[in-house]
Amino acid sequence: MKIYVIADMEGVSGVVSPEQTGGNTWLYEAARLQYTREIKAVCEAAINAGAEEIYVNDFHGNGLNLVADALPREVLVIKGGFRPSSGYDLLDGTFAGLVMLGIHARSGTYGGVLPHTYSNKLAFEIFGQPVGEFDVLALLAGEKKVPVILISGDSKALEQAGTSLPSTPGVITKYSIGTEGALCMHPDRVCELLRDEMKRAIKIMGSIEPAQISGAIQLKIKVGDVCLSSRIEWIPGVKRLDDVSFEFIGRNMKEVANLMYGCATLIEAKF
Ligand SMILES: [Zn+2]
Hints:
Blueprint: E1 2-7, H1 26-48, E2 53-58, E3 75-78, E4 97-103, E5 122-126, E6 129-131, H2 133-143, E7 148-154, H3 155-164, E8 170-178, E9 181-184, H4 187-204, E10 217-223, H5 229-233, E11 239-240, E12 245-250, H6 253-268
Parallel strand pairs: 1-2, 1-4, 2-3, 4-7, 7-8
Antiparallel strand pairs: 5-6, 5-10, 8-9, 10-12, 11-12
Helix pairs in contact: 1-4
The structure holds zinc ion (ZN).
Zinc ion binds next to loops.
């Protein structure tokens, strides 16, 4: 049995501020140790429950956050920045399940901890429904018939995931009380919960349906600042709907996900 783990940092227990998610600070160093501990807890539980191979995608920022030697030897780590596809490299139908750790709420979510969707200056909808990074990754996995078997993050992110992935077990790592504040449990307690839920997830994974999507996909892109609209207009195949909204029709989720990531990269670029 092969398991794929996508790990992000914003939803890790105790992480509430951008100072903890990057840079040369003790806050980042402490956060990446807890990020590693949470991934380790899940990997150990999966191996104990029969997983033979685990891929961990160090999805956050430059992809160089994880302390890999702390993980079990069975684990293979996908690391480094600007990989061909952000977050789902090498994910294919040979994996029995996808685990998403440390997720955050979608762009523009009131009360979510550090909410964004690749950028906090952009928001996206698929067929009129708001989508965040976790939705897109779940749909990408769904296209390959891989179910999302476990998800962890702040309470607001888990509330959103509960609607789009209702049968996926979830672990709340902290209770959001604002975009940069949360009521936090002891980090060891969060690791315990992750271990227990991973064990349960492997038991019930056969009954979790992969996210379903097929055929042409309608994506709406909304820019938070009209001054940035022209950057999206540069992209061929994107149609402007109004001052700040655009539409793209993708042939599959890979096209849609790549376009979303490309839009965010353009929006965040410094010229
Ligand atoms: Zn992140």
